[in-house]
Specification:
- By secondary structure, the chain is α/β, with parallel strands linked by helices.
- Helix content is 39%, strand content 15%.
- Strands 2-10-9-8-5-3-4 form a seven-stranded mixed sheet, with helices on both faces.
- A hairpin with a 4-residue loop joins β6 and β7.
- α5 packs parallel to α6 and α10 runs parallel beside α12.
- The chain is globular.
- It starts with a strand and ends with a helix.
- The structure holds pyridoxal-5'-phosphate.
- The site of pyridoxal-5'-phosphate has 13 residues, from loops.
């Protein structure tokens, strides 16, 4: 089966082999500390940052919760910037940790309009930090964090960025973009099985955590527990060594993949053009993430029938959606290992055949249309 969902993605053979390497005791083996530190430094380099990179044992959601748990104190006002389901979801974490979430709700069909956000901040900017999602995966919208985070910083507001489904599909410049906590997840554009969060934490964010008047109400989500792990040669809990070996193999691939970001962009553009030429409608009006394509379920056809036929006839899995977009859109993931012409091409051919079987009259050969836009 081909897994063409917007995470988890397919996993390369190198990553799978690395996960089968012999294990050491990660708490006692000094070699492992060195390898972990080197891996974190390589990730920092790819994110263009001097921040503190930590690998947390837990799927991407752990990073979102850890950032909020570590920064938020009772009654802190937190700005939740939302134009999608993950964006809005931060409100729950803020409230769990006693903060006051003020939700800034924006058009779900395009990226955040920075000038409107600026007008809002002129009136109210008394926030300890703001949360924003880089690519909100249910809709596939890509937010301009390169403009949002520096704007927040001008108002003295720290930023927490959920880049789980964009990191390494889109190049991120954490320091130049003034991002305080940048979060990634192993199962998205890194194409490692689910299990790890990448958290890159600025010194300013660490200082803010250290200045808290109340303790962080969690152990597992307390980012300060990772502070100076390399000098102390001690992790807060035993590291998932096979997951980390898998991540290391993936980061090696990413470091040597010179055309990575252009390829993601090219495949996303070609995929979108093919879907539209065929007669399908994209969910978004603008600001498409290069990591996935999201299109509306054609009228008169059940989303489940499309997904089921794709699997039964073609052994290809794409994704529907959830929450307010349940049964409304379909999603093709083309991030990380899935950002290769052959797999996307086969997926579009299968989708074309599936839709025709379900009596949708496509206006072109979707695969051929896709290939027209591949250099
Ligand atoms: C995948 C993802 C996460 C992690 O969530 P899961 O649903 O548990 O995989 C967090 N944020 C975004 C934007 C994601 O795409």
């Amino acid at each position: 089966m081909k897994i063409m969902t917007p995470g988890p993605t397919m996993v390369s053979e190198e990553v799978r082999k690395a996960r089968a390497l012999p294990c050491t005791n990660p708490d006692l083996d000094m070699e492992f500390f060195k390898e972990y530190k080197t891996l974190c430094d390589e990730i920092a380099q790819l994110l263009h940052t001097t921040s503190n990179v930590y690998l947390l044992s837990g799927e991407g959601i752990l990073g979102l919760e850890a950032a909020v748990a570590s920064l938020c104190e009772k009654d802190d006002r937190i700005l939740v910037i939302s134009n999608g389901i993950f964006g809005r979801g931060f409100k729950d974490f803020v409230e769990i940790y006693g903060g006051k979430a003020i939700v800034y709700e924006a058009d779900p069909k395009r990226g955040i309009d920075v000038s409107k956000l600026e007008a809002y901040l002129k009136e109210d900017h008394d926030f300890k930090f703001a949360t924003v999602v880089h690519c909100d995966t249910p809709s596939g919208v890509l937010n301009p964090i390169q403009d949002i985070c520096p704007l927040l910083k001008r108002y003295g507001i720290m930023s927490v960025v959920d880049s789980v489904s964009a990191m390494f599909a889109v190049e991120v410049f954490q320091d130049a973009w003034d991002i305080d906590i940048l979060l990634g997840g192993s199962q998205k554009a890194m194409s490692v099985p689910p299990g790890l969060t990448i958290a890159s934490v600025s010194d300013a964010a660490i200082q803010s955590m250290q200045k808290r008047s109340t303790p962080i109400a969690s152990f597992y989500c307390n980012l300060l527990n990772f502070l100076d792990y390399d000098k102390k040669q001690s992790f807060p809990y035993t590291m998932p060594i096979s997951d980390i070996y898998g991540l290391k193999a993936s980061i090696d691939e990413i470091r040597h993949d010179n055309k990575r970001y252009e390829r993601h962009q090219m495949i996303a553009n070609a995929c979108r053009k093919a879907l539209c030429a065929y007669g399908l409608t994209m969910y978004l009006e603008d600001d498409y993430s290069p990591s996935l394509s999201v299109f509306e379920v054609p009228q008169g056809i059940q989303s489940d029938m499309i997904l089921k036929t794709m699997i039964e006839d073609h052994r290809i899995m794409i994704a529907g959606c959830f929450d307010v977009l349940k049964d409304k859109v379909l999603r093709i993931g083309h991030m990380g290992y899935n950002a290769n012409v052959n797999d996307v091409r086969m997926t579009l051919r299968a989708l074309d055949e599936t839709l025709r079987k379900l009596n949708f009259k496509g206006s072109c050969d979707m695969e051929a249309e896709f290939m027209k836009h591949i250099a």
